[in-house]
Amino acid sequence: MGWRSATPALKPFWKGPDMSATLQLSMVGETDLVLTRTFNASPALLWRALTDPAILPRWQWAQDWPMVQCDMDLREGGAFRWVWRTAPDRLMKVQGRFLTVKAPLRLVHTEVFDDDWTGGETTVTQTLTEIAPQTTRLSMTVRYPKPEARAAAAAGGMIPGMEEAYAKLDALFPRLLGELRGTDFRLVATGDRQITVTRSFAARKAAVLRAHTDPALLRRWMGSPDMPLAVCEMDARPGGGFRYVWVMQDGTRIALTGTILTLTDSSITHTEVFDPDWTGGPTTVVTTFTEQAGRTAVRVDITYATTPARDQVLASGMGEGMAGSYDLLEGLLAAGSSAQD
Predict the structure, then answer these.
(1) What angle do CA 113, 119, 124 make, to 5 degrees?
(2) Is 105 left (phi over 0), alpha (psi -120 to 50) or beta?
(3) Which of 154, 200, 213, 326 keeps 20 to 30 A from 88, CA to CA?
(4) Which CATH number does 179-334 carry?
């Protein structure tokens, strides 16, 4: 109840002015095109989405141009080939080789289109920089063989097409979290003001419930080395309160306080509010525990004060934080640190 994982929703209070969720374009020298964009994902997750041939076709397309071939040998000196269908009888093809592969921070490759509209080989350098928890800035420098090729790219549909594809990637991240972790974690928007999170655990319901109400256990899965839970106070009863304080790597302290409205052996309902109160009022959280065949499904329904507040949380990268917290909880339960019935 209450989530270390939800704190990335507060990132607007410490992120800098360059944290744009849309593609920014600048021209450097005579042949370089520099593109920057911020993603609500860690460098590791963004790197995986940029380099996994099973994931790329799910987002790297725009204008109804699906990627129909994605072959990649991800190593220095390795080759790749990507093909998009731009019409029923027309394909767009590009190929190249990887010059630098430094996961998850730097990727350099050459590329040339089959119709060679650029008049030679282009070099693309992508740099991933973590600028806040679950927030990564991607900087891409595209070096064209001649100024005319850069001018044609900047004036054409390349930038809108890339932003359309990147928007698809942003929307894909919540689904990737569960898939890549090998779990059934899901986070989706529901209704006008809600977010629903689901995850199951190989443990009895009583153990999972206790892990949500015992301060000694909460500290072990709601905190992490990069965001320790410095304060964890819990009065687990109807009418009782709780207070959590996390410490970020830069020393920023994030507080969350709340009141428990109902507490049964199958559900917890509470209100919560961050300090500062960026959501414009208390958030209501209903956590439900359902056991079947020794496995417990957890469903968290979060209702925000307004639709803009809910949308800001969705855009914050909170899903990756919650998925990580739940991974810690899974390990805690597997170790038998909670009482099993």
Answers:
(1) 60
(2) alpha
(3) 154
(4) 3.30.530.20
Bridge partners (DSSP) listed for residue 274: 256
* Portions of the chain given CATH number 3.30.530.20: 10-172, 179-334
Tens digits of per-residue pLDDT, 188-212?
888 889 999 999 999 999 999 999 9
316: DSSP letter: T
CB atoms within 10 A of CB 24: 15
The encoded tokens of residue 275 equal 């300090």
The model's pLDDT over 209-223, given as tens digits with 9 standing for 90+, comes to 999 999 999 999 998
Which spans in 250-317 are helix H? 307-314
CA distances from 140 to 126, 145, 241, 258 (A): 4, 16, 47, 43
Q: What is the pTM of this model?
A: 0.69
Which of 44, 46, 94, 91 minimizes the C-alpha distance to 71?
A: 94
Q: Measured between alpha carbons, how far is 34 from 126 in angstroms, rounded to an integer?
A: 10
Q: Scan for tokens 């790329």, then name that residue.
A: 56
Query: Which residues is 102 bridged to in the sheet?
Result: 106
Nearest Cα neighbor of 152 from 122, 178, 187, 175 is 122
